Amino acid sequence: MRALVSFFALSTLALACSVETVDRNVGAVSKSCSPGESCVCDGVGSCDYSCSGKGCAFQCRGQGSCNLTCPQGGCTVTATGQGSSNLTCAGGDCTIECNGQGSCNISGCKGNDCTCNQNGAGTCNVN
Q1: 90, part of any domain
Q2: CB-CB contact of 47 with 67 (8 Å)
Q3: Which residue among 60, 107, 109, 126 sits deepest, i.e. has the most Cβ atoms within 10 Å of its Cβ?
Q4: Is the C-alpha dihedral spanning 56, 64, 98, 113 positive or negative?
């Protein structure tokens, strides 16, 4: 019994310490993310996120599309969903890990130092 109580206490503590912001959206969601915060789009609708500083971490895991803006650069995107992931990176030095089924696109990259790594069924494009 003591082991069972300890397990539940640790599980509750692990859930309480989670810092991830997840939008399980059905419609369109728009918001601003802060550097150091993990912004997650997980649903059937689309997400329109922008980074309020330099170096946001975005995750696109749903069926909808992710439209991301990174004006100061240094952002990373992990795309594991079925929809497309589109990143506008005016500040440069952005990366998409394209691990899902949808297409991954980086546009407006300053200095041509953006990277799209394709590991899934989708396509990778840097314009």
Answers
A1: yes
A2: yes
A3: 60
A4: negative
6 lies in some domain: no
Query: How many structural domains comprise the chain?
Result: 1
- Taking the C-alpha atoms of residue 94 and residue 74, their distance in angstroms, rounded to an integer, is 5
Residue 10 domain flag? no
CB of 4 closer than 8 Å to CB of 22? no
What is the token pair recorded at 15? 């859930």
Distance (Å, whole) CA 2 – CA 83: 45
Domain of 62 in residue numbering reads as 20-126
Burial string for 64-101 (b: 16+ CB within 10 Å, else e) reads bbbbbbbbbbbbbbbbbbbbbbbbbbebbbbbbbbbbe
Position 56 in a domain: yes
